[in-house]
Amino acid sequence: MKIISILFVFTIALFANFEDGKKVFDAKCSSCHKEYIPMNLLKENFLEKNNTLLNLKAPSANLIVWAMFDSSKKIGDENDKEFQEIEINGYLKSYLENPDRFNSICDDSALGHYENKSSMKGVLSEDDYLNLTTYFMEFKNNIKEEDVYKNQNTLKKKNKIS
């Protein structure tokens, strides 16, 4: 079993990268899930505004990352990244193919605001799961709040010029 786990992690490391995972997220997840919403805005939306501020139908990617790595429902041991990667990949495949609110890692106070997740069985390939695993594992190192604001301001300026 340990050999299989090592081979699996080696395969992930060889073929999966953040950008490929971002492409999968953008193509197959972003119609329901926003990529990044600042945590203070998410807190205000759910704790003060009962989701009337953002009207989210699914958690943002950064909220999923928070749930995976920082919440009480986090997946795996952060001190063993290779095994954590295997556990996250397994969780993604299991949950996305058979969504169940009782198996969700989402915060309970926000979960009731989301629509029921439909199965992604047959929509995501094994490579997609590997790439999404890497995307979520490397999210914090690649998506920074200040970069999101910078990109939004650049887009606003371009739209005013056009």
UniProtKB/TrEMBL annotation:
Transmembrane segments annotated in the record for this chain: none
Keywords: Heme, Iron, Metal-binding
Superkingdom per UniProt: Bacteria
Record-annotated Cytochrome c domain positions: 16-140
Record GO terms (molecular function): electron transfer activity; heme binding; metal ion binding
This protein's name: Cytochrome c domain-containing protein
